[in-house]
Amino acid sequence: MISLLGGVICLDRIVIQSMIARPVVAAPLMGFFLGDPYTGLMIGAVIELFWIDRLPIGTLIPPNDSLAAILVTASCIISSGLVGHSSRQIMAFSLLIYLPCGYIGQKMDVFFVSLNDRLARAALRSAEKADLHGVQALHLLSLLIYLCLSVCFLFFFLWPGIAATAFLFPLFSPSVLEALNIIFFFFPLLGIAVALNTIHLRGMVPVFCCIFLLASMILEIGHVL
Predict the structure, then answer these.
(1) What is the DSSP letter of 201?
(2) What's the rounded Cα separation, in Å, for the pair 65 and 194?
(3) pLDDT tens digits for 159-205?
(4) Residue ranges of the alpha helices (H) in the chain?
């Protein structure tokens, strides 16, 4: 069900493009489906910043941040229920193991674009023959292929990640768990650095750092209370 829902969300990357497939939207949607929209929002915000400088302009095919956000969110929420550790540490671990899937998804998108070019040429040949049903069928076939690729991608990578998390977390020492806790706060800083490099507001670095530290302190106090 997660793979199917994630595949439908990823369709927005090529069909309507209403930004539903953006990580900051896709991850909370998946979190809402799994009963934890807050975790989805946190993950979506981090991944949205992480690749904010890789825009699909011209022929550039960026990493598939939609697939990565869905995988991290689903793995984090399900693994937290299985293992019983705080979602903060599992969130950091899920980000570490699933961020490379964004680049693997990029390869999948490259393959789909090359396949879509062949379908487009076939649709032009059908149009030359006034075969409107053939054109329509090829358009729908393109959507079906991307849906199947996304669903299979999510299904193939989701279960190994959950199994690895459920197996490894009970074996982690307290020092490893503390390191994951630190990494959890490192990822937002990395995302902010990428965003600042993109919009060229270097003079705003101290302001952003202060805001981040203040927000972190508030979240930590709220967590303790």
Answers:
(1) -
(2) 15
(3) 888 888 888 888 888 888 787 778 777 777 666 666 666 665 555 55
(4) 2-10, 23-33, 37-50, 65-83, 87-98, 100-128, 132-168, 174-199, 205-224
